[in-house]
Design goal:
- The chain has 615 residues and is α+β, with helices and mostly antiparallel strands.
- Helix content is 32%, strand content 21%.
- The strands form eight sheets. Strands 1, 2, 3, 4, 5, 10, 14 and 15 form an eight-stranded antiparallel sheet that branches. Strands 6-7-8-9-16-13-12-11 form an eight-stranded antiparallel sheet, with helices on one face. Strands 27-28-29 form a three-stranded antiparallel sheet.
- The protein is globular, with a radius of gyration of 25 Å.
Length: 615
């Protein structure tokens, strides 16, 4: 397909999600779950791998598009020689715990009389399987392949040509024509039909009611709310799991091999997402995720995985879909993720920190979560000295990554705070304080380069790593510590391109620390972390400037992929990416808090602060 990553819009129902391009083509949809095989996989190949396009017969890109108010309802408009037309795309959230995902696409005339065509090419199992398509007795078109069936509902007369289903309509001002496509188990009787206009009203009401719970009222509210909606859309409602992104194998390096499946629940990403949701008023999501965590980890915290399926599945076997050419010929296309078998120390810190933020926000205690946290400490005490694969999931040798050790310190620190808050003075408290001090001392002794005044990627390394920017944010050291300031300035000097931050040095044609050839773009989460750190060390104007530049990288709908390619001036990586939208929210919260502090000082007649703040 020829669409850029940022040309896509997201629609979803908290069970799965679809990507719709500016030209009206829906090029990615997995049914019935985020991690199910795709029915439309044209995003990773071409038209032969499945798509659903609704657009004027005259073709072309939409003249304008936007989400309707604070919702996930997409409205795309075309101005054509015959008049103007609007297509309204959305997925109604299901009333059932496990429902049947449905996509509704309503064609609405604005002016003139505009011919519009719907063309559907369904290809099951990521474009590999051609389904049996037939007309059902109730007039709907049904496509069946193995356990799955997809039903297409429309009053327009369908016709088939070239293994594709077409329907043509002409709409005048105020006229509306709906197309509804839904998934259903193939062995079950036909599903009920959907009333599209009623579904539209219900969907808009759902999103507006949900957004009304947002407590953030700062100057970047539109950007924060759109990020919150995106994070909510990446939540698998039946279980509370949160996927990192709804896509697989959108490349970090166009034409390269850095292509990964992100349709799973990373403990790290989910924990950071929950922290952002909690601090903006969404406690229900935190409770649901905590229950998901307890089910996924079960009675085996010693074998904690870094990621799980959205239902808590452990086996995420990785294989290559060699029949797909990949996005812009970026191969291989990977299904599943072998990183699920990695050992990453930092996830213990992120999980415990998320539980900590939930408690601070007023989430009631939970005995099982309390016991889980203590069990995690038992494991961490015996393993924090071990090397690991680190936050970036390197496929090279394990190392003593500094960020991993810092997050092990966070896990112990937040557990100590939990015990202190519960006034538990006996048991493991004193012992945990000793462990916390040991980790802190070792990181400062072996992870810091005194000559260059910077922390390094791993013990004994000369390389930098953008994850070191989190050191002041998690409270490991205060922001005014010279080692923190030195690390921030070293990263800003050595790891940025056009002002945006790369995760770590890559080696182009060689193989770097991550065990992979090729390069990658600037990592958006790390760039937001730099803005946070600049604010924390008093360089607030510089932080705001960087934050505004990052906001300008969003597409016209406010969505971000994982990375930005400064050379090509394009978004790259899986899309939209929770790990990009979470720090957007975090940075907005920090900068807003600093602005409010300055406003309060002005009201009291004192000088504005220098911007330094603690976690």
């Amino acid at each position: 397909m020829s669409n850029r990553i940022e040309d896509y819009a997201l629609i979803g129902d908290m069970q799965t999600a679809a990507l719709v391009a500016r030209n009206g083509s829906l090029d990615w949809l997995c049914l019935p779950r985020f991690d199910s095989p795709a029915v439309f996989a044209g995003l990773l190949g071409n038209d032969d791998h499945g798509y659903w396009k609704i657009a004027p017969l005259s073709g072309g890109q939409a003249t304008r598009r936007a989400y309707r108010r604070d919702s996930l309802i997409l409205e795309s408009e075309w101005d054509t020689p015959r008049g103007s037309v609007r297509v309204i795309d959305f997925m109604p959230p299901s009333d059932e715990l496990i429902g049947a995902p449905t996509i509704v696409r309503i064609v609405e005339g604005i002016s003139g009389n505009v011919p519009v065509r719907s063309e559907v090419r369904m290809r099951f199992h990521y474009g590999k399987v051609v389904p049996w398509v037939r007309r059902h007795e109730d007039g709907r078109t049904v496509a069946v392949a193995g356990p799955d069936s997809v039903w297409l509902q429309s009053k327009a007369e369908p016709y088939g040509r070239g293994l594709t289903t077409y329907a043509d309509v002409t709409v005048g001002p105020g006229e509306r024509h709906a197309f509804v496509l839904g998934w259903w188990p193939s062995h079950v009787d036909a599903p009920l039909t959907t009333e599209p206009e009623e579904a539209l009203e219900d969907t808009e009401r759902f999103w507006l009611d949900w957004v009304a719970r947002c407590t953030y009222e700062g100057p970047w509210r539109d950007a924060v709310v759109r990020s919150l909606i995106t994070l909510k859309a990446l939540t698998y409602a039946p279980t509370g799991g949160i996927v990192a992104a709804p896509t697989t194998s959108l490349p970090e390096d166009l034409g390269g091999v850095r292509n990964w499946d992100y349709r799973f629940t990373w403990l790290r990403d989910a924990a950071m997402t929950l922290s952002a949701l909690v601090r903006t008023g969404f406690l229900e999501e935190a409770k649901a995720w905590r229950e998901w965590l307890l089910r996924a980890v079960a009675g085996d915290p010693e074998n904690l995985q870094i990621m799980y399926g959205v239902g808590g599945e452990r086996r995420l076997t990785e294989y290559e879909a060699d029949w797909l050419p990949g996005y812009e010929n970026s191969r291989p296309v990977r299904i599943g993720n072998a990183a699920a078998e990695q050992f990453q120390l930092d996830v213990y810190g992120e999980v415990v920190d998320a539980l900590h933020h939930g408690r601070l926000a007023g989430m009631e205690g939970h005995d099982n979560a309390h016991q889980l946290q203590l069990r995690l400490m038992d494991f961490l005490e015996s393993h924090w000295r071990n090397p690991d694969e680190g936050i970036w999931e390197v496929r090279g040798p394990r190392r003593h990554f500094v960020h991993s050790k810092v997050m092990a310190w966070v896990a112990v620190d937040r557990t100590i705070k939990m015990l202190e808050a519960d006034h538990i003075t006996d048991g493991p408290l004193e012992h945990l304080r000793t462990v916390r001090d040991e980790i802190h001392r070792e990181v400062c002794d072996y992870g810091y380069d005194a000559e260059r005044n910077t922390f390094t990627q791993y013990y004994g390394s000369i390389e930098l790593d953008a994850s070191l920017l989190l050191i002041p944010q998690v409270g490991f050291l205060p922001p005014d510590d010279k080692r923190v300031v030195g690390t921030i300035e070293a990263i800003q000097h050595e790891l940025t391109e056009d002002g945006f931050v790369r995760r770590y040095p890559t080696r182009g044609e060689g193989v770097g620390v991550d065990g992979l050839p090729g390069d990658e773009g600037a990592f958006l989460a790390c760039s937001f972390w730099l803005a946070d750190d600049l604010a924390m060390i008093g360089r607030v104007d510089e932080a705001r400037e960087l934050f505004e530049r990052l906001l300008a990288l969003r597409n016209d709908l406010g969505l971000l992929a994982e990375e930005w390619d400064p050379k090509l001036q394009r978004q790259v990586g899986n899309f939209p990416q929770a790990f990009s939208h979470v720090p957007l929210i975090d940075t907005a919260l920090r900068l807003t808090a600093l602005r409010q502090q300055d406003d309060e000082r002005r009201r009291q007649g004192s000088a504005p602060a220098d911007g330094a703040a603690t976690h």
